[in-house]
Amino acid sequence: xxxxxxxxxxxxxxxxxxxxxxxxxxxxxxxxxxxxxxxxxxxxxxxxxxxxxxxxxxxxxxxxxxxxxxxxxxxxxxxxxxxxxxxxxxxxxxxxxxxxxxxxxxxxxxxxxxxxxxxxxxxxxxxxxxxxxxxxxxxxxxxxxxxxxxxxxxxxxxxxxxxxxxxxxxxxxxxxxxxxxxxxxxxxxxxxxxxxxxxxxxxxxxxxxxxxxxxxxxxxxxxxxxxxxxxxxxxxxxxxxxxxxxxxxxxxxxxxxxxxxxxxxxxxxxxxxxxxxxxxxxxxxxxxxxxxxxxxxxxxxxxxxxxxxxxxxxxxxxxxxxxxxxxxxxxxxxxxxxxxxxxxxxxxxxxxxxxxxxxxxxxxxxxxxxxxxxxxxxxxxxxxxx
Length: 386
Description:
By secondary structure, the chain is mainly α. It has helices at residues 31-55, 66-78, 84-109, 112-123, 128-142, 150-165, 197-200, 217-252, 261-298, 303-320, 326-346, 355-383, and strands at 10-12, 19-21, 176-179, 202-205. The strands form 2 sheets. It has a two-stranded antiparallel ribbon. A two-stranded antiparallel ribbon has the order 3-4. Strand 1 and strand 2 form a beta hairpin. Helix 8 packs antiparallel against helix 9 (261-298) and helix 9 runs antiparallel to helix 10.
């Protein structure tokens, strides 16, 4: 049946199209076999529908083994006594056949490894230099609340940045594009301020068949949340570096400094936090987890094992990036917003550095750090980790 229930007694199929009602299973029929049948049914239905749409003919996912499986199922039907072991043996054979066929589709025909690398380069900011230049080029478009034309302008800027930075194949621009949804009602962030285009910016991926069975809508939503988070870290780091560059330029030309001693100390503190967060996310989390994902994908010929490895990878990068721990992720976002506010304040055309404002920002920064420490301590004590 189509999947719309969130009941604890329901198992949702991997692609999210169907639901298994576990409370309706006979007591003698194990859930593990029912889940295999769910996978088989959804895969056959998906493959048949897509192939019929693409070629106008119905092709079977079983290749030459379909007749053999039909004979075995008929044999089970004609048995005098129902044997769950025999049923599981036949179902496991069918499941293995489909899983291997799907593996060939995604690995050999669709070149999954190349697509994973592309997803890493864009959603996970693997091409850091590309987004560094994009942030500088698109900042004037995204500082204000988005207009109906903002998305078009931003995509033109992104395409120009790609062609200036990326040497070689830029065909991925046909499948990836930035989204900046404009709203009639002015949207507000957690702090009550009107959201800028940066807060609304997202990345959309048009997934070709058959990779859509791996990169589902739910999966892409998770990638998008990671993308927005990583981009906010990159923006904060870029802004702080811009402040430092402006300070050095004024020092070399013997003009009045942008930063007082207190402001400079706050700047250094923010830079230390953001640089360490950036390194942790990009190296300790993303590179490490992506390497593990590639190892698992290349060591199996079972599609379900690939899907499990990919789901685990996505869950791990969310967890290790603190995105699943809402109080901590909220505090980190507030810290990144404080960095942006500080840089805007310091680089504004004011001759005298605003000491009161920077003192207030410093206090808010300390408050957020205390909140993170408090939440982390509570979480670790609750989980028994010391």
